[in-house]
Specification:
Blueprint lengths: L5 H10 E11 L6 E12 L3 E6 L4 E7 L2 E3 L8 E7 L2 E12 L6 E6 L6 E6 L20 E7 L5 E4 L3 E5 L2 E4 L12 E4 L2 E7 L2 E7 L4 H25 L9 E6 L6 E2 L4 E5 L10 H17 L6 E3 L5 H18 L18 H9 L1 H8 L17 H5 L5 H17 L1 H15 L2 E3 L1 H9 L6 H9 L6 E7 L11 E9 L4 E10 L10 E11 L6 E4 L5 E3 L9 E3 L2 H10 L6 H16 L5 H11 L6 H19 L5 H18 L6 H14 L4 H9 L10 H13 L5 H10 L3 H13 L3 H14 L4 H11 L5 H22 L1 H10 L8 H10 L7 H27 L1
Helix pairs in contact: 2-3, 3-4, 4-5, 4-8, 5-13, 5-15, 6-8, 8-9, 9-10, 13-15, 14-15, 14-16, 15-16, 15-17, 16-17, 17-19, 19-21, 20-21, 21-22, 21-23, 22-23, 22-24, 23-25, 24-25, 24-26, 25-27, 26-27
Length: 858
């Protein structure tokens, strides 16, 4: 299959205007394929040659202006349109198209709980060609009119209001001008909750087996949706541009969500079947906010080419978090008590859960500018690689810094000018910067060059000294100098803290002395502050810029004893991220980070921080960075920490914290006795009762420890015949510590080719387990040729899953690194897998460097 190049897209955009697609989909033709008939009305501005894309199972017929063309001329995914005359044309294509099991194109899923079937589209980048024929590029916007024939009893959803004409026939209202990748259809026996807001129909939808769980959260989801909708209308001059707002929670979805106009699709794990924390509910709310922001930035105004994908994602990421801080959330989501912090709680979650993703991506060989040069994104295959922590988290951080520097009023004025000038059209980075510049006297173009066209993470280091006494002897003072390793200007807030003797709080409680703004770099003159030297000086207090931070020595000593005593959660997040970065850069021993977690997490009040620190401690500190001789002590520390958190929550006052602690205790357990007791009794002593998620988590850990067997897994699956039950069983079977189980899992992953995307991921997650190296070492070298061949057969979605989940991450040794590095030379590597391997191998290289530093220091 040919990928579309930027040059080809530019040429085709100069030739064609596309006015309308009229599409008929028949979903009643069988379980393997569906029928797709497309009529495309377009105008050629001048005579010439071009092509249309389609990826059919069978191309039955094609005609241009009523004249039949030869279907045999289809070349891969392209049908040539040669000697095209100037003027209006109508192209008709009739094809059978394949359903997908990988989350690409038209994905088909049969729910094992009740046997009901659901289909939905995911057409991002170039997968529209799997559903209907199209001139598939974002700057050839068109009107889309779609009719769907579905089995009786199904409901059809689309970008516009869908009307049922009887006998399974549905007509979806025509769209305004949108890009091909934003067209959406979802069909099945959906369970729906509908309402109306601001004169528009709103709905949320899920498969029937999840109906009780959606109903339980429906008020929360719809309240958040309405509040966000209203707040965006206060920010944006352009009204919501579509005729309805549906949110469908769909099975086996590859991303978190997709911003299809009028029909946002979400992974249906957001319909919670088991207990979750307030932070996880807040994450769902943020995803709702993120996707709604796309209705303006991405859908109303769309990128011209994929080099500007960051404009879509960074804007939605920033605006989602910021807008969520401005609306009234349901009480359950506000996990920070009133008055505890001046910082919005959602930015704590961003700092913990998202910024590390950006920092990590930006320090790998695969890093790229937030706004890459167009020549760096020559085709759709290379564009797909840029959906990473840079385009999301770093870009959002850059916009947050821009707002801090520019001011929100001017920022929003520029944004509204951008929408007004490019509504229902396309725009580039240059357009965006010009529109921002029109609202301010500041040099936005220079800012963009420094922030958006460069790579890497700056490091800001605090240097503190006591200045010479004032001649008149009036009081004490201290001096702060900030050095910068990097090239970007930063406007930061500096926070200073003193020990608060006798105050209530965690170890070494601290009190805020003051906060002040600082531009870095300045003129090189240290900033003189009155009073004695603070106990703690935090750069980037408030987390308004994107940079690694290094504290002065005295402040770091304070952190080790008083981190949990810092009064503001966002400040604690900045400090924890500093510790995380120092471990990754081999500047802080992993054992010191783990000891800090053991000391301070029992006093932490913010759930996002607890979850983030525990995840890094378990997944990186213990599983990858700790040298083998220190592993028993590290695992014991982690287990003791989780046990302490469980003990501290026995009164039931903090169920979210208790749930996090129980999850991590299960995953860290080295002995099966406690887990067996919980599983047999159906509850953790003192709560919570075991729901499906906890049952499968315990069973997975018992499988890893060799304390369960296939019969027990089969019994558990019989009691939970859901999709997540199937995934849990697949994960458990792959985790069993037997040669037979590993061989069967490997065959399912790399030979069988029948696993859906989610079952593939679950099997891969189970296969590699720390402590099972004697069983899995022989598969390390096999991974590379098998994954390369698999990616070539099954495409980018499975390639990404293989690189992310099936990679031998726990084989931290030079031989594994060498094997992987040599595999990068294989000419058959598709870009999606190459990118994942480059990133994974760099992480492996970093883990080896951390271990080496520990060994040298020891």
């Amino acid at each position: 299959m040919s990928v579309l190049t930027r040059d080809e897209a530019q040429t085709r955009a100069q030739i064609l205007d596309v006015e309308r697609y009229t599409i008929a989909l028949d979903l009643t033709t069988g379980e393997e394929t569906f029928d797709s008939r497309t009529a495309i009305r377009f105008t050629a501005r001048a005579a010439g040659d071009t092509f249309v894309e389609v990826k059919p199972a069978t191309l039955r017929s094609i005609s241009l202006d009523g004249q039949p063309l030869d279907p045999a001329l289809l070349d891969g995914n392209r049908y040539p349109l040669t000697a095209l005359a100037a003027g209006p044309h109508e192209l008709h294509i009739d094809a059978a198209m394949r359903y997908s099991r990988t989350g690409e194109g038209m994905h088909r899923f049969t729910d094992p709980t009740d046997g009901e079937t659901y289909v939905y589209t995911q057409l991002f980048m170039e997968d529209v060609q799997r559903v209907f024929a199209a001139f598939d590029q974002p700057d050839l916007k068109s009107v889309f009119s779609i009719d769907v024939t579905a089995p009786e009893g199904w409901t059809v959803l689309g970008n516009g209001v869908a009307e049922h004409a009887g006998k399974g026939r549905w007509t979806i209202a025509a769209t305004p001008l949108v890009s091909t990748y934003l067209v959406a259809v979802a069909a099945g026996p959906w369970h729906s909750v509908t309402t109306e807001h601001a004169g528009l129909p709103f709905g949320i939808h899920c498969r029937r087996s999840l109906a009780p769980y959606l109903d339980a959260d429906a008020d929360e989801i719809l309240d958040i949706t309405r509040a966000l909708y209203d707040r965006y209308h206060e920010k944006f001059d352009e009204p919501y541009p579509f005729d309805s707002y549906d949110q469908a929670f769909v099975p086996e979805f590859n991303a978190g969500a997709m911003e299809n106009p009028g029909l946002v699709t979400f992974r249906d794990e957001f319909v919670y079947r088991s207990a979750v924390t307030d932070t996880e509910r807040q994450t769902r709310a943020m995803v709702i906010a993120h996707e709604m922001a796309h209705m303006w930035f991405g859908d109303l105004t769309t990128l011209t080419w994929w080099d500007d994908i960051w404009l879509n994602e960074s804007f939605a990421e920033y605006m989602g978090y910021q807008t969520l801080t401005e609306v009234t959330l349901p009480r359950a989501l506000n996990s920070v008590s009133a008055g505890e912090s001046p910082f919005p709680v959602t930015w704590v979650d961003f700092g913990v859960a998202r910024k590390g993703w950006g920092y990590d991506a930006d320090q790998r060989p695969s890093t790229h500018p937030v706004a890459p040069d167009p020549d760096a994104v020559p085709d759709t295959a290379s564009a797909l690689l840029n959906f990473d922590g840079i385009s999301y988290a770093k870009g959002a951080s850059a916009l947050r810094q821009l707002v801090a520097w520019l001011g929100e009023k001017d920022f929003l004025a520029g944004i509204n000018t951008h929408f007004a000038r490019h509504k229902f059209a396309n725009a580039t980075l240059a357009d965006f910067i010009d529109n921002l510049a029109s609202a301010t006297d500041r040099d936005v173009h220079a800012w963009a060059e420094q922030w958006l066209r460069t790579t890497g993470v700056d490091t800001l280091t605090a240097e503190i000294a006591a200045p010479e006494p004032a001649p008149n002897g009036n009081g004490q003072s201290w001096a702060l100098a900030v050095t910068r390793d990097g090239s970007r200007p930063h406007r930061i807030t500096v926070g200073t803290y003193d020990h608060a003797l006798g105050a209530q709080g965690g170890p070494g409680h601290l009190a805020l002395r003051d906060r002040f703004e600082l531009d870095v770099p300045g003129d090189g003159t240290p900033t003189i502050r009155p009073g004695r030297r603070p106990a703690l000086v935090v750069l980037n207090d408030g987390d308004l810029t994107y940079a690694k931070v290094r504290l002065d020595t005295a402040s770091w000593d304070t952190v080790l004893t008083s981190l949990s005593g810092i009064p503001d959660a966002l400040t604690r997040a900045v400090v924890w991220n500093t510790a995380r970065d120092m471990v990754r850069d081999a500047e802080l021993p992993p054992a010191t980070y783990l000891a800090a977690a053991r000391t301070h997490l029992p006093h932490e009040t913010d759930l996002a921080l607890v979850q983030g620190v525990l995840s890094f401690a378990a997944g990186q500190i213990v599983d990858r960075y700790t040298v083998p001789e220190d592993l028993p002590a590290a695992r014991a520390t982690l287990t003791d920490l989780c046990r302490d958190l469980i003990r501290r929550t026995e009164d039931g006052s903090r169920p979210g914290l208790r749930l996090i602690a129980v999850r991590h205790f299960i995953d860290a357990a080295t002995q099966p006795d406690t887990l067996r007791t919980w599983l047999d009794e159906g509850t953790v002593h003192g709560g919570p009762e075991l729901d499906p998620e906890l049952r499968w988590r315990i069973l997975t850990r018992l499988a890893v420890l060799g304390a369960t067997d296939e019969a027990a897994i089969a019994t558990a699956l019989a009691a939970d015949l859901s999709a997540t039950g199937r995934e849990g069983a697949a994960r458990c079977r792959a985790a069993l510590p037997t040669a037979e189980a590993k061989a069967a899992a490997w065959d399912a992953l790399f030979t069988d080719d029948t696993l859906s995307n989610y079952l593939f991921t679950a099997t891969a997650q189970g296969f590699w387990q720390p402590g099972q190296e004697e069983l899995t070492d022989g598969y390390v070298a096999r991974f590379y040729p098998d994954a390369i061949a698999l990616a070539a057969r099954r495409g980018p979605a499975i390639a990404e899953a293989a690189g992310r989940y099936a990679f031998p991450a726990y084989a931290v040794d030079p031989m594994s690194l060498g094997t992987g590095t040599r595999a990068l030379e294989d000419p058959d590597l598709i870009p999606a897998l190459r990118r994942k391997l480059v990133d994974q191998l760099d992480d492996l290289r970093r883990a080896l460097a951390v271990r080496s530093a520990v060994a040298l220091a020891g």
